[in-house]
Structures are given as structure tokens and as C-alpha cells.
User: What shape does this take?
Amino acid sequence: MSAPEYTADEMMTVTAARQLTNGAVCFVGIGLPSAACNLARLTHAPDLVLIYESGTVGTHPSVLPLSIGDGELAETATSVIPLPEVFTHYLQRGRVDVGFLGAAQIDPYGNLNSTVIGDYRQPRVRLPGAGGAPEIATYAREVLIIMKQSARSFVKRLDFRTSCGFLEGRGTRHCPGRGPQALITDLGVLRPHPETDELQLSAVYPGVTVDAVRQATGWPLKTADHVEVLPPPDPADLACLRDLHARTRAAHSTPVRITPAATIR
Amino acid sequence: MNILPLNEAISRHVHDGDSVALEGFTHLIPFAAGHEIIRQQRRNLHLIRMTPDLIYDQLIGMGCAARLTFSWGGNPGVGSLHRLRDAVENSWPHPLTLTEHTHAEMAVAYQAGASGLPCGIMRRYATTDLVNVPHAPVAAAQCPFTGDALTLVPAINPDVTILHAQHVDRAGNVLIRGIVGAAKEAAMAARRLLITVEQQVEQFDTDMNAVVLPAWLITAVSFVPGGAYPSYAQGLYPRDNRFYLEWDDIARERQAFLDWMARHVLGLPDHTEQLRVLGVLA
Assistant: This one.
């Protein structure tokens, strides 16, 4: 039986989903993290608790939200809470197991930039900014990062540190959470070295060479003693992910019609 | 209950130079009120909002804002807010001073404002460069009881907070259901509170712990059905995700943006007419 055809994006999403254990409380960002978390929930981790920063706690969307606060998330949540409580009662209080982040730039210690490219006062590119990322990076027991890999975004020095990974490495991070435990890219998986905290290549996808990953990294990439070659995505996972994306596309292209509600007066 | 047509509520209660918070986290964003501010050509506003979203992209691009306090400035799930970027990167149509927070900071800043406190409190960890930028809005402190490191965030007290809500009852109380974001805190922090609302009902059919703003807190209520479009009103109409995707093209270039605003905001009398022109009225 031949392996099914799949894209690097699909491999990345399936790999990210596989990092999540059933029952974990997961703080979800929009985009790739949201796809990975919902895939995990629909496959091997049905009891995953998904919290979106809009205040939807324990949500079970049947389609992927475009924004962090689509109505689908509220309708299928265990509880919809005021936003300040998300960051105080849940995150700062230490009730989140896994935080899932992306960014525009990452450095060898998993520090992230989502604020500016160039100087803060005169940026070449103004990015959206911090949102919930700094506190997620600080308080979640562990952080997973999902990013497409390129030498332009995997840089030796960040233009701006929006949220922290291991800061300068070697135990310089002093935060409640343990920091990034895996960086999942479209080429493979990087994990922190147990002593230096530097991210090093621990696994590649089928057909990806270590050299190709080095080419797509803006610092001299170190590798683990043994770099695992991950198997292609499970066909059932792949089918589930494609269904999820198809449902999402259909839902997001439905025209909106507003019927002005009658008032009692 | 002080009912005013939206154009009158804005002309009476939103002035040049005011600090203005149009809140609603993804949900119930008061687009109609924002468009009326653009029509009345308010200037030098200090815009406050956790997620500026399309409505602040429009206000900034139309030259209404001198300052922005925010914590995440993108088009959610789509990409950049091009007008916000153009203002920051190229000072177009004029310079925009940023006061930049994290979501958590801004949430406690609203809470402090709503509670009559000078500042909000968070735990402090040396993690982000945001504390080092010009106009960095936070300060370090130490807990006098435990010695723990703390971050203090100055309270936010907008001159005007504007919210969109689903229902107002006969007595003028306002009900918000669904994702509430920091709407309640922004309302309680404000000096003046304007509400646009979908619908009036005899009385609310809801749990006793629902988010209800008592009539006597509210400066004025305006009936604006569909007033949150293209964001949404839980139970009444969904978010128009297609429009959020299309906005990326509309706002990318200055002239296309100005043309769209002329056709859909400046050239139209009100929000109902805009919904009709956009083809979303059933």
C-alpha cells in the first residue's frame, strides 16, 4: 500500500496535533494552532480542553473559526467568561497545561517576535503585536510553537522580543512555565537541549534532509544525537483534517443576511 | 431611558480630542457607531481597543485618530490591518502615537478603571521588550506583603465607551450575551457610555447572572439593527468572515480604501442604507 499524498502543511498540522495528550488544558491561538488542536480533539485526544482568549472555555467547534471569537466557539463552549478572567483566573493562576504559539521570527532559544520587523520606532513592517502571547509564554506549563521554517524567520537575533522562550538559555528563563518544549515546522521538529536550552533538530519529515533544514535556518543549527525520520501522516488523521478544512471553507463562504429585528415600540 | 438617533448621540457625546473605546472582542463590534464618527469627521481622537479590528483600520485611515492604545492590531485570521500599518510605517494620513499593551495588561487596566483604582496589578517576569519601548505604559513594583515582583498598569478611563448590544428592555437596561470580552469593564470605566442596540424587548428572558448594564449607567441608547456588521450579534446574525477576507484587498491601497469609504460610509446617510448597498439586508 502506498502512502497517501499530502502537503508539508498537512504534515506539520498532524505532527503538531500528535504532541497533545488527551485531557490537557490547551490555550489555543488562531490559524495553525487552532487547526492542530481541533484535529487532536477530533482524533486521539477527545477530552482536550480548548480555551480561546476570547473567553470560550472547553469549546468544541465543528468548523475552524476564522477569528479568535467566532460565534461557533461560544455556542459550543462549556463556559463563556469575561476576557480578564481568561488571563487572571486561568492563565496567571496556573491552570493552563499547554500554550500554542506562532510568530514572525524565532531565535535559537525559542524567543518570539510578533511585533515589528526593523526598529520599533520606525518599523519596516508593523506586525499585529503581542495579544495574549507574552503571558501564554510565561505561564503555560509548556509551550508548543508552530511556524513555517525559513532562514528569514528563523534568525540569530530577533528584531524585537515579544514573548520569551529560554531568553539567553542555560536556565536564564525564570518563569512559572517550562517554556517551549517543541517547535513544529513544515520540515521537522526542533526541541530544546536539556542543558543549553538551544533548539536543536530532533526529527525530520519523510524525504526531508538535515541539510535542507540547515538551509532554512538563520543560525548554525545543531542536531540531536539521533535525528528521527517521522512516518507520513496517518490516513485517518489526514482524512479528518481535510474534512475539517472542507467544512470550514463551506461555512466561511456562506453569505450573511440580516433581518432587522422588530422592536416592541 | 435616553434614546437618541445615532447621529445625535455621536454629535453630542463624542468630541474632537476625546479618548474613545469602541469595545467588543471580535463579537458585537460597534461598526455603525464608528462609521458615524467617520461621517462627522471627528479628529485627534485617542482610540482605545484591545483588538483595533477593521473599524479602527477605517477610523485611522480616514484621519480620525492621533493616538492608539491597543494590544493586538491585525485582521483576525487574515493578516495585517493595512491602514494601521500605513499610519505607523509611513505616517499616512498622519502620525499615530502608539501605547502598546499585552491583552492581559489591557484587561487589568480596564478592570482598574472600572474599579476606581489608579492602576491594575499583575505578576512580573522579565520576558518581553514591550516594557522598554517609548511610552512603555507599565511600571515595576513589589508586593508589600510577600515581596513578589509585580507589574502595575495604569487604569484606562475612556471619555466615551461605545458598545453594541443585542437587547434593551422597556426600562432601558441593556443585555449582552455571548462573548463579552472586556465590554463590561470598558463600560464601567467610561465617563460617558453610549450603546447601540439591535432590538427592544418587554423584559429579558435570561439567567439572573447575565451581563446587564443598568439603564442609569447609560448616557444614551441608539437603535441600530445590524449595527455590529460585519462582526456579529450572537443569536441574531453571524460574523461575515467573507467580508473580513475581502477587507484585505479593499484596504491594501490608499485609493481603493478611500473609494470604498466614500461609497459605503461618507456617501450614505446611515448604517441601514449601508447594509442595503452591501446586499446583506434580508
Summary: Chain A has a mean pLDDT of 94. Residues 197 and 217 of chain A are 17 Å apart (CA to CA). The first strand of chain A starts at residue 25 and ends at 28. Chain A has seven helices and 14 strands.
